[in-house]
Amino acid sequence: MSTIRIAIDGPSGAGKSTLARSIAEKLGYLYVDTGAIYRTLGYHIYAKGLNPKDGTAVSAELPGLRVEMSHGRDGLQRMLLNGQDVTERIRLPEVSMYASAVSAHPSVRTYLLEMQRALARTHNVIMDGRDIGTVVLPDAEVKVFLTASPETRAHRRMLELEDRGTPEPYEKVLADIQKRDWDDSHRAVAPLRQAEDAVVLDTTALNFRESEEALLRIIRERTAKS
Asked: May I ask the CATH architecture of the domain 5-221?
């Protein structure tokens, strides 16, 4: 029996993870947060004090790493690094830039590509990231490019950081998001871009419930045609 693959791409802070997780629970699909996978590698490089832009140094770390995902009964994705749960630590603000930098290296993308595709072969998945519809799952039944204005994304991220107990000033959060956008869209390998057959969903003027309803509508329309 073939699986259904839903690819959700978009810039940092667009709400991909929150929306994808909620909809996966509603549909009974496996949620795969690929950003968390790259954050796990970024955290490792950060914890070791290495330069994330040094491709040689980053590549040298890969053979000794074991990156795994686990899903509890609550459906939440936990990230394991060499057997240690690092789910909370990879969300530190400083890890974001490390994740973006390490994800630009071809060796890292190759290292994680099969892991992501294997999950989609064995489960109905909702997978979110930067290059899911263009590189990881180019034949996905549903492709959505989820976006919002940088200012809206910065405001949402600021509230998220406050909830986690790691507040940052709005100006800094906005600057970080703008830099992340530039880095992700200008990297040489698998840059952030909209797949030609993706549906664009701009949530700038939508609240969470409205965004969720709009995304569910797209998914149901596309899966009905496949």
From this structure: 3-Layer(aba) Sandwich (3.40)
